[in-house]
Write a structure and sequence with these properties.
Blueprint (H helix, E strand, L loop, with lengths): L1 E6 L2 E4 L4 E9 L8 E7 L6 E6 L6 E3 L7 E6 L4 E6 L8 E8 L13 E2 L3 E6 L1
Parallel strand pairs: 2-11
Antiparallel strand pairs: 1-3, 3-8, 4-5, 4-9, 5-6, 7-8, 9-10, 9-11
Length: 126
Amino acid sequence: QVQLVESGGGLVQAGGSLRLSCAASASGRTFSSYAMGWFRQAAGKDREFVAGISRRGVETYYADSVKGRFTISRDNAKNTVYLQMNTLKPDDPAVYYCAADSSISPRRAPEDYDYWGQGTQVAVSS
């Protein structure tokens, strides 16, 4: 069982930056035994993959729409995964979710993830 709590969302001007955090509390299996992903869901749209990171943080994956602007990282000692978002654009606003995947490498389909946080809202003003 894993409980995930996101934080760090808010309102930022276009071109600005935000850093999202996702704190995990795990029972049975350690945090480092999960690949982690960030997803987002804008109003009226499907939930989409944003970024993923492998168990030890060696491999990272990004959606094309955020590549070069967003960076995913994790600190297994702190049971936390981060999403650094730079150069935010008007099409980035959404509720951002972190999720835990019991596979070795993070997958891109939401249905492959086992645990989800409650989400944190990101808004971008032009």
